[in-house]
Amino acid sequence: MEEILDRFLIRIIFALFCCVLLYAYKYIHFLFYRKSIKQVKNEFNLLENPSDTLHFLSRILGMVIIFSFVEFNRFLSIEVSLSHLSLVSLTIMVCYLCSLIIIEAIVLHKFNYRTEILKKQNFSYAIIAFSLNISTAFMIKTILLHSQNSAMIFLTLWLFGMCLLGLTARLFTFYSRFQFNRSISQKNIGVAISFVFYIFAGTYLLSKSFDQPHIEKYQYMLRIFFKVFLSILIVPVFLYAIKFIFALRIKEKSGNDYMIDQEKSIAFGLSEGLTFLISAIMTGWIVYNINLTGVFTFV
Amino acid sequence: MNKIIIYIILLVSYLSLNRAIAPDNLGLEYIRTSQDLSKIIKHYPATAILERIMTKGYIIKTYYQKYKIVYAHRSPREIIVRTRRRFAEQSKRFVGMSLFSIDEDKNINTIPMPPGIIFINNQKFGQWYFKSAEYFWKFYRSYRRLPIYLGWGSFRPSKEFYEVSQESTNAKLPYFGLDNQFGAKGEITLQYLPRPQKHQLFNSIKFGNLFKRYLKTNYN
To answer: Which of B14, B54, B55 has its CB closest to that of A230?
Structure first.
């Protein structure tokens, strides 16, 4: 009974400590994003602005996704575990918020939070920001898993991973028929849906590319680069194959009007995003699950 | 049309970059002919004995050759190189023979010869001795391990063996030994380099066998 109670109490202590960390996150977030003053002053109204709610909560979700990576070990004393947890968590928080600044500067450099979320209540912008928050969190989690507890390896892989994620996000304009910046400013939900599936698919492929034998960091990064390059070459094969096999065509006589009409643009965004996600999963299977190392055959 | 051009450019970049800097392709030298082994063998006198020819690949085969480099003054080492199909096919019958030799004066010989010809009749490495009405080559004590490295076993070259090899070199013809002891079908080569046996597992990987085993395991 004593042991059960002891374990329960330790879990409660850890849970409370995590709450303290989340509280700290609230203020660290404010340091990085001064415009979110409402969230610090407890003036935030959930029902007032759904775009702001999505934007704010997605950042907490992203943080929690990375937190789920951290492990506690019983053999360490509770003080050591708590100090380790707080050090790792604070580093992760700073790193995550820096990553968000970088990725938003790459993808949403023509927009700003105050205009789009606070003034215009642009839900399209909020959905795109949500997808970026979650993708960045998954990327950082993957990088943490492969950094072998080394700060230098983590820093190198983090920069490399952010470059790849930024490049993937920028390539959306090349893939999609939507005019990205114009559609967002028009609050087009279709482009947001398409982007969400696209960036999730991209993150899936990028995360998979990190899952390789890690002996020497430059060779490891080269291997990641080649896997990503190979994925870029294989994705279009599936994209065209899916469109051809399932006859995914737009039977519209009025030109590109379907991109302006809200309902039709959602359908188009869904088809564009989902086609990419399907292709990405198939590509992941082809690139990462088929082992072609082969053996020597004697002649 | 633009997208197709971009795709082709990306494909070509991928293939060339992969060939140039991919970690999996680094470390293996490429040789077009045995002459190119001079880029790999930096110390002399030395001889490169072809030990195995291997292929890798499902649709497009890549050819590899395994050489044993025997030096006069250092320990031997084994290397694997990539090569082109034509050269690999041509050198099939020269397995176990020396395809490249370089002497102290940097003279290169790429005519297929029995291993170690370069060390014979060189007074620095050994001398001829008379036995049973014939002269045989014997290495000095400090080079006593060379016959083991060269895969000679109990074979000791006679003067006649050496003289015929020199005639072949002058005529630029491959030489397999007086009784064809060397080469892919040579007696000494087969002793030193037994042909790789196909593992029993490979025989069992036939669709029929696998299907029968599957039925037996799951439906009996």
So the answer is: B14
Q: What is the pLDDT of residue B166?
A: 92
- Report pLDDT digits (tens) over B105-138: 888 999 999 998 999 998 899 999 988 888 999 9
Which residues in chain B have their CB less than 8 angstroms from residue A215's CB?
A: none
Which of B10, B16, B86 shows the shortest CA–CA distance to B53?
Answer: B86
Residue among A219, A229, A299 whose CB faces B54 most closely: A299
H or E segment to which residue B16 belongs: helix B2-21
Position of tokens 């890690």? A214
Give the number of other CB atoms < 10 A from CB of residue A230: 18
Q: Can you give the pLDDT at residue B212?
A: 86
Closest Cα of chain B to A240: distance in Å?
12
pLDDT attached to residue A44:
73
Which amino acid is it at B182?
A: F
Q: Do A229 and B17 touch (CB under 8 A)?
A: yes
Q: What kind and span of H or E run contains A22? A: helix A2-32
Please report how the helices A189-209 and A262-288 are oriented relative to each other, as an axis angle in degrees rounded to 10. 10
**Contact state of A233 with B64 under an 8 Å Cβ cutoff:** no
Question: In chain A, what residues touch B23 (CB-CB under 8 Å)?
Answer: 219, 222-223
Which residue numbers in chain B have pLDDT < 50? Answer: none
Would B203 be classed as within a structural domain? no
Residues A7-24 have a mean pLDDT of 88
What sections of A49-122 are H helices per DSSP? 50-67, 78-107, 113
Cβ atoms A169, A199 nearer than 8 A:
yes
Only one residue has tokens 């006198």, namely B45
Tokens of B168: 């072949």
Q: Which amino acid is at B51?
A: E
Per the structure, how many domains does chain B have? Answer: 1
- Output the 3-class SS for B91-121: HHHHCCCEEEEECCCCCEECCCECCCHHHCC
What residues of chain B lie within 8 A of the CB of A222, using their CB?
Answer: 21-23
pLDDT-based confidence at residue A151 (cuts at 50, 70, 90): confident
pTM: 0.79
Q: What's the ipTM?
A: 0.78
Closest partner CB to A298 (pick from B14, B23, B52): B52
Query: Would you state the structure tokens that stand for residue B106, as one six-digit string?
Result: 């940097």
Instruction: Judge whether B8 lies within some domain.
Output: no
Contact A161, A136 (CB under 8 A): no
Domain encompassing residue B46: 25-195
Q: What is the pLDDT of residue A209?
A: 92
From chain B, pick out residues whose CB is under 8 angstroms from the CB of A294. Answer: 56-58
Question: Domain for residue B35, yes or no?
Answer: yes
